[in-house]
Amino acid sequence: VEASIPEPLREAWRKHSATKFTTKHEFEREFVRHIETTLARSLYNCDELAAYSGAALAFRDRLIIEWNRTQQRQTFSDQKRVYYLSLEFLMGRALDNAMLNVGMKDVARDGLADLGFRIEDAISQEHDAALGNGGLGRLAACFLDSMATLNYPAWGYGLRYRYGIFKQEIVNGYQMEIPDYWLDNNPWEFPRHDITVDIQFYGHVTKYQDENGKTCHSWEAGETVQAVAYDVPIPGYHTKTTNNLRLWSSKASSGEFDFQKFNAGDYESAVADQQIAETISAVLYPNDNLERGKELRLKQQYFWCAASLYDIVRRFKKTKRAWSEFPDQVAIQLNDTHPTLAIVELQRILIDVEGLEWDEAWSIVTGTFGYTNHTVLPEALEKWSVPLMQNLLPRHLQIIYDINLFFLQSVEKRFPNDRDMLSRVSIIEESHPKMVRMAYIAIIGSHKVNGVAELHSDLIKTTIFKDFVTIYGPDRFTNVTNGITPRRWLHQANPELSALIAEKLGGYDFLTDLTLLDRLEVFVDDKKFRREWADIKAKNKLRLARLIKDVTGYSVNPNSLFDVQVKRIHEYKRQQLNIFGVIHRYLSLKAMTPEERKKVVPRVSIFGGKAAPGYWMAKSIIYLINSVAAVVNKDDEIGDLLKVIFIEDYNVSKAEIICPASDISEHISTAGTEASGTSNMKFVLNGGLIIGTCDGANIEITREIGEQNIFLFGNLAEDVEDLRHRHFYGSFQLDPQLKRVFDAIKEGTFGDPSSFTSLISSIEEHGDYYLVSDDFNSYIATHDMVDQEFQNQEEWLAKSITSVARMGFFSMDRVTNEYADIIWNIEPLDIADEA
Ligand code: F55
């Protein structure tokens, strides 16, 4: 269909083409216009929420203009695009980010002030877009920001969940989960009711011969559900590029709302069928690092992969190129194994629909995909039962069997008579029921597999994917150490620190070239600079103290050492080690004389994070933290010397307040379990020091900032296996200081001890899998060092400044460029140059 306006009329169009506000005056006009017309409100009826909406709509208009232009230019330029497939995008708020990225926040601040609002109040009205669990989802969001900032033609593809990650409330110390319904009045998404894809499920496969006698397969009948596209504009920082995030929403297919049932008077069941279709995109699964094999989750995965691939293939076919050029036009990155079905789906489209031969299709597939692994934890490796897959996706299972057959044949040729190897690397695990190992499909179907920090990338090559290194050689495997976007995690979260750095470096170029931070190092000994640095930290701690007062009711002394651990609650991340350490501190304080107490550095231990709703051990850890807080915080003998705080509902916008306010933060996973970690980078970039194990990106942070600037402790990854073995077959000796902590808990110091028995027995009796006891002594000793060094504020400040100066490596822009070079083979497209 020709939708393009004929040439003679285009002049009139161009004359009226939308324009962007540039001055305060123009912003105010747009703001008021949106409030009076779009929102149908007035100056007599304009609260902070309306002010947020007015500002959001004014900025949204600007984004749309650049977004349309970017998409047109990217289509005309006809160069390779990258598609980032992720079931999670943990975006947080959009307005503040949009203001900063288009460079108009000051204009908006002045304009809002003229009209009676404080910009912070308007900004804080926005509901977080929380379509993710933790690090994996936030990494996807940082990718989007960076890809747009660097002008890469890039799209994100995800699911438009009606409910994001649950909202956490703490009631009597326990976590409660509240649904996060976030879609009402969301100005940042654009429904594309004209962009829909019918997605099939169930049914059966029939074989037939085509006119040349070739055997073909057709997947028939079953149910169909409609995917509807919703687009979200992604502005780059100080660039004209505005990329697209396309989220799919499920809807009953037009045929599915059964008019026969309807006419037969069975209206209710017709509507019920519609509800079933809409369930697919209803809710984000709230597990991190755990796969539970639920059918609805597999449906979500296929629905999203099939819709995205249909869209990508449709766009490619418009170019009229030969199929062999597909990998020159398209790179698809798989964020973990969740989108692995996209590999199978592309192979299906190429052979069943487009009629390519298997081998030709398969080389297109492997040339297109890259796979990022985020975990070595066995319980997180995705497997689907064969019967489940047979029922839901019969044709895909056949293709998986064929992929496996050809793969195993090639392995057998190179390693004859190694039957063990064949069973180890088979996509199908011969269990009851048989299981499909998704990571193996992802490896076999991609040209590159990467881990997210050096240690992690080494571990996947030597443990879980060892055989594949033997088979493919080391080149298929690579490392790209994670990073974070300095726009959100420095400039937006910590505007004063960003401004101070800009003043010293003569501008904000460091926000797009973070290695420029190294020029700060010459100011380390500058007394005035140190004071300014310290004052900013103090202000940020005050801001956090206010948040703590608001959400917990507790007052904390902002001159205390703020010690923070915020992340998903998980045994491997060891919040239990932290709270046992806090109990140890409390017991030590109680045993001191008043004279001794005078020398103690006051401390606030701050926790935050969600537990997966079905993860009992994680929920007990939260309950223990809150039980300790209840006792310690009201102990007058202890006063400010120790406070314990659990900040409920930790999310992206709370992280923006918490990260700039830490003196020390904890990244204390059992060595070898945390793939990378990214909040470690956020804290250091904001001038906090960290205490951590030799795990994930902590190791590279140490290499960059210097080991004198970090508090490392604990056993090394290479010793973990041996230590675990000794817990069972050697003599397991509980650390004596930890025993004292357990005794206090068992005596009822923190309430009914029966609430904590499983937590304690997992260590005392069931092998202490996460080595809490093994690391306890070293952990306590390191905290004593932290206390000592905090008393020398000048030294502390020098460490803080030096560390920030050396954090350039952890910019997401370095990460994006590495993926672009090593995995995607893609170039930036500067929209300004194209104009
Ligand atoms: C979510 C769902 C499933 Cl089924 C499995 C895992 C997750 C998840 O949230 N994983 C996750 O956040 N992984 C983290 O990824 C970060 C980014 O690479 C790493 O920094 C972090 O170490 C890792 O745990």
TrEMBL record:
Keywords for the protein's UniProt record, in alphabetical order: Allosteric enzyme, Carbohydrate metabolism, Cytoplasm, Glycosyltransferase, Pyridoxal phosphate, Transferase
Regions that span the bilayer: none
InterPro entries: Glycg_phsphrylas (IPR011833), Glyco_trans_35 (IPR000811), Pyridoxal_P_attach_site (IPR035090)
GO cellular component: cytoplasm
One Gene Ontology term from the biological process aspect of the record: glycogen catabolic process
Compartments in which it is found: Cytoplasm
Named cofactor requirement(s): pyridoxal 5'-phosphate
Similarity comment: family membership: Belongs to the glycogen phosphorylase family.
Name used for this protein in its record: Alpha-1,4 glucan phosphorylase
